[in-house]
Every structure is written in C-alpha cells, then in structure tokens.
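Lab notes, practical 5.
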Amino acid sequence: MDEKLNPLFTPWKIGNLEIKNRIVMTSMGGTDLFGWMEINHFDKEAAKFLLDKAEHDVGLILPGCQPVYNPMLGQWLYRKKSRFKKVKPFRDEVHKHGAKLFIQLTAGFGRSFCISDRMEKLASNKVLNVLSKPVMNFDKICATASPSPNRWSDKVPSKERTKKDIEQFIKAFAKSAKLLKDNGVDGVEVHAVHEGYRLDQFTLKYVNKRTDEYGGSLENRYRFAIEIVKAIKKECGQDFPVSLRYSVLSKTKGFREGALPGEEYKEVGRDREESKEAIKLLSEAGYDRFNCDNGTYDAWYWAHPPIYRPENCNLEAVEEIKKYTDKPVVCAGRLDPFVASKAIEEGKLDGAGFARPFLADPHWVTKRKEGHRDDIRPCICCHNGCFNRAHYKGHSNDQSLTDSLHRSRCAVNAETRQTTKHYIEKTKSPKKVVIIGGGIGGREAARVLKLRGHTPVIYEKSDHLGGVFVEAGSASFKGKLRELLAWYEKQRKDRNIEIHLNTEIKDIHEIQADHYIIATGSTPKFFKSVPGFEKGIEAVEYLKDKKCGDNVVVVGGGLTGCEIAYELCLEGKKPTIVERKNDLVAQTGVCLANSSYLREYFALHKVPVYLETKIKEIKDKEVICTGKDGKEIVIPCDSVITSVGYNPAPLTCKQKDVDLVGDCNGIGNLRNVIWGAYDVARKI
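Output from the prediction step:
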C-alpha cells in the first residue's frame, strides 16, 4: 500500500465506539435493508452487497436510509418490530470482519419527493387523487415546513406539516433507534439536515416560513433536528452514537435554482455563518458525528457531483466547519483517497465517505491496500445506473419504474446489485468466439467470455481499441472515462485476449468460429434535406482532433452536444446551441444532477441557446435556422459541429450463432452497451 494512504487505515472513535479505519461507506438509495415501500421485508440482496464491503476493509457501513414513516401505505417503521430482528444476525456477520454498522433513519423527502410523470397525472386528477390516498397520499408524502413548490412538478405542491406530525416523527425516530439498538446496531444516523430533504427543509429560510416554535429564528428552524437527537438519546442512552447527515452549505439561489462553483449569488439556504452557528447547536444537542457535503435538491450537482465537477469539490467547506465542533467530521462527494488521507493526517478531517466507487468496484479499498491501484474499475460519475432521475420541460420525471425501484446499480459494472441476473459461470463447452468491433461493448464481451473459459478473439478495423469512447473520453473533464479505457486494456492484457487491429471484416464467414459477436457500433445521422450539412464537423470527428474556430454553432442539444459546448466554453471559445426539442438534454436516462449543471452553466455564462429551432441551411460563415414562430434566424460562426444522433450499423443481423451488442443493436448509452455485452457473453 502507498504509505500516503496510511492515515486512512488508522482507528478513530465516534463517542465511545472505536472504528478500525477511516473508510466510511455512505448511504445510497437502493442499499436500504428494509426497503421503502414493503410492509415487512428484509432486503437480502442489499445485505449481501453491504456484507461484501465489510469483508473488504470498510470500517463503517451505512445502508441506504430508512424512512421512519413509510411513504406508501402509511406504515410507521417502529410498529413492525419483526423487521428489526433480522438485523442482528446481519450485524453479527458485519462484526466478524471488524466493521461497524450504523442505520440511517429519515423523515423523508418532503418537497423533494420525486414525482414521476405518472404520479403527476394521478395527483392532479381530483378523483384519482382521492381514491389513491390509502396507498399514496401525496399530501403527506410531499408535506414540508411550509407550503412550497415540489422540486419536480408544478402540479403537486407541498403542503405544511402540522405540529402533531412533527411530534409523531420525533417519537418514530426515537422508537426506531431503540429497536435498532436492541438488535445490536452500533449507532444510527439521522437523515438529514442535508440536501434539502424534509428535515433540512425545516432549517432552510426559503422553505420554512412558519411562525410557530419550528420557524423564524435559527434555534427554531433547527428545533426539529435537535428534538430528534434528544429523543433518541433519552430512549437509547447518552452513549449510543447518533450521527447527522449534514450539508455544510446549501449552494442555493431559490426554488430549482442552484449556485454554480465560483458564482456570485445570494444564498437563500445555509451559508457559512449560519452553518457555524448551526453545527454548534447540533453538537451541543447531542449529535456525535457529522457526515458532510453541500447542496440541496435545488442544487443537486453539489450533493451528487457529476463528472463536470472537480474531485474534492465539497472538501474545503467541510474542513472549515470542523473548526466549530469537537465531534468527528466526515466528508463525502467525489473524494480522492489520497487527498482525504492527507486531510486526516493534518487533522482537518476525521473520516472519508465514499459511495459510488463501491458500485463500480466493490473491492477498491482492498485493492488500494494491497497495491493494486490499476485493477480498480473507476466510477465515471455518470449517474446512469446509480441515480438517473431526469427532469426537463414538460416532464416531471421520466425515469422508468424499474430504475426507480432498483437503484445503486452501476453503468460500468453489470454485476452490482444484480447477482441473480448477472454473474460469471464457468462454461462446460468452451468455444472460440469472434468479436467484430473493439469498442467498449466488444471489450466487455471479451472480458466476460474469457472469465467463463471461452476463447474470445477481437477484430478491429482501426489501429486501436475503444471505439467512440476514445473520442468521448477526450474532453478535459472526462479523465475517469480514460481511466475506464485503461482498466479495460489491463484486463485484456492480464487475460491474454487475442486482438487483430487494422483488420476490417466484411463477411463473418471469412473467419472460422463457434460463435460471433457483432459490435460494429453506429454511423452518424446526416440531414440530406439541409443544404450544406456536409460543411459541419460531425461530433466524433471533432472530438478526434478538437479543431474548430472560435465562434461555433453546435447543432444538437442532447448530452453529447451539450458536453461539446461545455468543453468549448472551458477552452475559451464561444458556442451557440441549436436544438429542435423544447429543452436541452431532453432525453431519458440522464440524471438531473448532470443535466441541470449543464443548463445552469450555459445560462450563467450566457451561451446562446435556440430551442424548438430547426436547421435550414449551413453556409461557410453562418447557419440559417427556423424558430418555432417560423421566423428565420441567422447565426454567424466560424465552425459548425453536428451532434444529431446515430443509426445502428450492424455488420449482419442476429442469427443462431450471431449476437449483436452495443449501438449496432440499438442506440443507447454506456450502461446499455456494457450490460448488454455482459448479458450476451454470459449466455454463450
């Protein structure tokens, strides 16, 4: 192990509880032991995932947050005591490996509750709303400190929680914590004065307009959180550790308005001065640890940093707040282990929180410890498997029900939380499998085939492997994607997978094999009806050499087009975006944390954006468009980059001994490519 990481592996204490190292696996949706909607359920798949982390050198484990009040069917957690009995044997297994277990308890989402398109239709229909209340009571689910707009939907406003409701929640936290303690759990974490969830909404001035003892002054706004810890301590004893999930700074300008890094703005939530006073109050009230980041659902890209955000983006604020409490402080959010280790060594931090890296590579801590850094599969911060809730004009959230119910999966690791569907099984009949195309899909298929005992052979027509993801990873902020490509190359070399570069296969029958996998990707769309369209630089071709003028029109405001425009801004160029739809990044599967960052970045930096606008003609020095009002728009430019989508380009069709993976089988994203390739290779 690199000696610079030694501080990460030193013991520390939360109250009187000693923890073997400073590695904290923080909570993620989808890793909760009981689930959110089930009446009496213990999630064995989540338990298996968590126990694996205990076996691989994690010091403190926090499963996903458990609502003390079930948002579905109106069930209080503490009234289902049979659930808790299943925790103790699991805790015992965790302890066998020297790890400790905290359970995170939450008061729920409030105005941040994710309203889907279907929910919006249900809630906004008077008859259906009334009929659905026994199962899904939006008035209770979305209720908050004061009447407020829902984060996702204008049609489902959030009503005010009553004092009776607050009292019930405080009681529920205390009783649930006592049941957890009685069943061996090492501590609990209160979720959350964090990220703009319901409990945080009481603390935030722009949400809380109450005039009773839970509104107004700082002491009143934090009273809910303070009364919770006092009730837990009274029920469980002063020595029982209680942590708090805490956002140091809200980074919020208003409802659905976040503040970008470096932006001058007026904070409507928790600023530095308030945070200093708040953490003193919370420490004195009895909280034993603070698990920290920044942001709210209105500024989601702080709490869930996308790839556009730098590593350690929350660390400075967390280090600052540690000066105002004598309780241990942990930082989370794109944290680099070496930077965290140095901060711990210098006394600026007590623990390091990680979540998504465990989805990409569940054993990364052990690999770091044993000096196998290059074997770690990186998280690329795409949010495409772990947290892909989407929101754009005309849609509250278009995330599929499958994705909503099965989170904490990973785009780059098909096995994460899917062990009953995706697993490696040695073959009883080894085959030679020819793979035509050496992009990510082809490489993933080859890796899985080799692990199963087959003999994969890759044929690639270019002089390198990686396909379009080489170009996709060329942007300055895509370092993690380049790490993923490097990981695939190491996997290939370690497993001695045969490759043939500069070899174009036009007929699969040129090569003798038992099975064939076609991974030939796609071809860019070309608008023949647009005069001069050929004058534009296709997106992938642009990414190969990055050559263009200073004033650039980007045709296509999907994710690829917006990322290109973002990179152009970082380079000091002046992009203009033209998009046919009514919003940027109006596509499924892109998390709001990612899309809102791009939209707000372009707005802040005054990047011209033409929505509901069609390209009419591309000339040498200008682009002529038609706006939604039918009027002609002329945009002067030096270069045009086109990013208008792709068409599948399979070498041949699917047959008995032929499978298709990746974009040649259907245009998708990285998750579709990797999971599809894994699934095909697993079944051969």
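Observations recorded by the TA: The longest helix spans residues 163-182. The mean pLDDT is 94.
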